[in-house]
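Model: Ready when you are.
Researcher: Fold this.
Model:
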Amino acid sequence: MNQELTSVMDEIMADGPTRIIISNKRSNEQQYEKIVIIPKMIKNKLMYQAEQLTDTQVYHKNIPPEILIPYVDGMMLNLFRQINAFTASCDYEIKFSKKDKILVSKTEKPDAGSRLAEKSAAAPKPAQNKEKIRSMPSAADIPYKNDEGKTFTVQRLNENGQDISGDLSHDYKKKRIIEEGTIVEPLIDMGIFTKEGKVVKSMSDKFRQINRFLEIVDDAVESCHFKEVKMIDFGCGKAYLTFILYYYLTYIKGIKTDITGLDLKADVIAKCNAAAEKYGYKRLHFEVGDISDYKTAEDIDMVVTLHACDTATDYALYNAVMWNTRVILSVPCCQHELNAQIKNDKLSALTKYGIIKERFSALATDAIRASLLEFKGYKTQILEFIDFSHTPKNLLIRAVKTNVSREKREKSLKEAKTLMDDFNTEQTLYNLIMPKTGENHD
């Protein structure tokens, strides 16, 4: 183990971590993009659940407190270079240089809310029994490989020296960002919660969908360390998720939040403003307006566009890009533009059947959009949002402004252009962005 890292992790564990994020992978070839660790009570025992994220999937692993430090140590020495850890009283940033020199930054939170302090105080503090902890290969545990191809795992031994790592149980109730029993007025008015905060049985799928959406948002918000957020929700409609986002950012995350919802329907906007006033959401307001010509002098931190129809999504994404918005969340809808143009004689099997052509056109549209966001300096993912059994519009584009290399940006632009050329199409976001970039179209 790295003794300096172990010392810092001992301090974090003693304070009761609420979240640990392991990121900045050492090699582009490794499986996991990052790991998010949160404490959970499972069968009345404190465990730490690690969400191990690849580009397309999440693998969950439950870790007993006594092996969390060697688990983190193994990940940092073999796969990653950065840890961000959050406790009730401090934020920690731990980085490994290319020569594996450790750099530690600690920021105290003297004004931390009592809610987090109480939560930390209530959690049992794990005891470290270092005689029974060591890192070594084990068939019972999940194997990991570093960039040199070396396999390592974490093994847990009992007092007789036997391996008791095993397959940790997953039969526990999933902890959600909004828990059942919480009084959330918008959810009550939507018919998802009863007045007592219980989930209405017929609305359990909707409740899961809302929490899944918040999990996707939470990951982006955590990475940006927002103190304040100014957000635009383009095409907000009845604004169900807009109200939930305001509740999440303001009351769960404790972030000073201003949200503007925009839609074309004046009657809908009037009802939304009335609801915001009823809930006492003073920094949430709604306006009648068109996405394509919307202007603001504010610095916008987040842009959300859920089911903005066809090219309205492109105008929303374009506005976000031009504002250098840090987080973009988009669920595209009704991607008709490419469907009317798409043609490729060599791949005619994709275009001769109407339903196949429609779905391929939608996927191609979102692939182009995601690539163009990468070209503009965003780390971009396309995630599953809602199961097919509920709606075919089940893809969410999540983009976070970051340091994307020029090589990757140019590659993403070329990929978007190649896809359009191969199927003889033009795409609105591409046409909006390119005149502003100064790049050559050829």
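Researcher: Now this one.
Model:
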Amino acid sequence: MKKSMFALVAMLLLLCVSAQANDRVITFDQLPQSAQTLVKTHFADKVPLIITADYDDYEILFESGEKIEFSRKGEWKDIECKTSAVPVALIPEQIKASIAKSFPAATIVCISRDRRGYEVELNNGLDVEFNKKFQVIEIDN
């Protein structure tokens, strides 16, 4: 009962926040096909809590706390897995190798990409930024 109430309250809160940001709630079938495929392939065991769209992106928030942001074309822009690791198949090989070499005990819990490069957050609290050529350009904690 508590889980159901929490989920309902969370959904209502997200609906209010979404409405303020000009987001509209959509169904899974309204996502671009590539986004649907990514979710079915790598997050099949997760239950979507809310899916929103606005003029330039889509966002899925799962009951377990994971969040994925997609571009209008359905390409992932940001993946947050605060309670688990980002699926390794979604991480570029160069980033996996760099993190494994420099931080062998760490896992990637968030990854984002834009036109400048990638940024990853590790489970040890460090943020590592990569340029387009996958070179580390900054490490923050």
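Researcher: Key takeaway?
Model: The chain has three helices and nine strands.
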